[in-house]
């Protein structure tokens, strides 16, 4: 199944008039087309309520891929593969009509009944769509049917479980592709390779040599026009339950016995199971929440979260989370993994810092101070690369060392375009490779972990919001979280050097 490099399928996008389709899905499918990863035997059907025509959809598709055009890609020809059907997700007649269209397109494009149903719509419709697809026979074809689901997958463990049960009545687990777009990022996929393909790191990847790991995912944007959604979500549900915990799992998992989706998943699940559970009363010892106040970001004055559109002026929603995770297993006992994510922070970047333990004895000094610890930094975005921070001799001074860095950047110099996360994930789904999608077991364990924190924060209103200035790296309590363990956050500047 994974060997076909030009898989033939029809992609049905539910929510084709929406933002995700326009900004991510159409451009990603176009890039696959340009790279010759799609044969001419494919079609995309867009559905939504708006009474668009094929031509209207095609002109929107052309607009959204405008910037990606090149001589070797015929945009007109690409757009001619797109079809539109006005759709009411609750009306069975819409599904019957869609089924006819798909059968016709199967014949026209020589596709053997392979269908991807991509739900780029609000999650409240997922269950209805999944069961109607099955009941109206859209999944009963000669070929395969796969369901792609966007975040958020539920609001907490009970709602995620209910949603999963609904979907599972129509699709098997191996037909469900839950998107976590971080798993499509080049350097997130590279974590496993860095770890398991380097004799240098793997023997040291444990509590004997690593003192702590830090994962930061910061944004400069605020909530923009998504205040209503964000008020019911917050940074914990929006970022920690999915992306941050997925990165933790990849960093901490044991080497899988094979690189199959099942083996990798099983190792990730073990990490999530080993996360130290907290009681609601202990959450404050491990987690810090924040909400941005006004400030200056990228030289612009910006308003506070509680002044944003559709946001309660007395909002208890967190726009920042930092936390200390402990993985209670043999490899990681005693090593804190710190995570931090927030909006309206100083820089947009996602980075992982692995800090190695200090040497047992210091023979060299750096400006009169102890030498720097060795750090391995994995740059996830916007730069994609790794930097290894070492110490070397300072010229002409015998007992003095100076920090140096070995820097590898995948996309810095020539700005080589690595594939977009969505491009990779859509292609993986077409080929039936579920490695970089989240299994229900992972979703379930992540929600169980996060639910304790949300409960603690819902029970007790934050009395200090807003508590960090826009353009900063979060509230001071986040620094204190590490300081009490004798650590501090490593902030990495744009040229990959360490900020003091
Ligand atoms: P959006 O811009 O609001 O689009 C929603 C789509 O659903 C529109 O095409 C809308 O079209 C359609 N729709 C709404 N109600 C419908 C109904 N009753 N029947 C048929 N179609 C209906 O939302 P989005 O930003 O694209 O997000 C879509 C999903 O992706 C959400 O689950 C979101 O959480 C997730 N997501 C989005 C992003 C992003 O960057 N945008 C990132 C991660 C996850 P009509 O109005 O024409 O019906």
Automatic annotation (TrEMBL):
Positions annotated as active site in the UniProt record? 243
Q: What PROSITE patterns does the record point to?
A: G6P_DEHYDROGENASE
User: Which key words tag this protein in UniProt?
Assistant: Carbohydrate metabolism, Glucose metabolism, NADP, Oxidoreductase
GO MF terms, alphabetically ordered: glucose-6-phosphate dehydrogenase activity
Show the catalytic activity: D-glucose 6-phosphate + NADP(+) = 6-phospho-D-glucono-1,5-lactone + NADPH + H(+)
Q: Where does NADP(+) bind?
A: 15-22, 49, 88-89, 151
Functional pathway: Carbohydrate degradation; pentose phosphate pathway; D-ribulose 5-phosphate from D-glucose 6-phosphate (oxidative stage): step 1/3
* InterPro entries (UniProt xref): G6P_DH, G6P_DH_AS, G6P_DH_C, G6P_DH_NAD-bd, NAD(P)-bd_dom_sf
Q: What is this protein called?
A: Glucose-6-phosphate 1-dehydrogenase
Q: Which organism is this protein's natural source?
A: Priestia iocasae
What gene is it encoded by? zwf
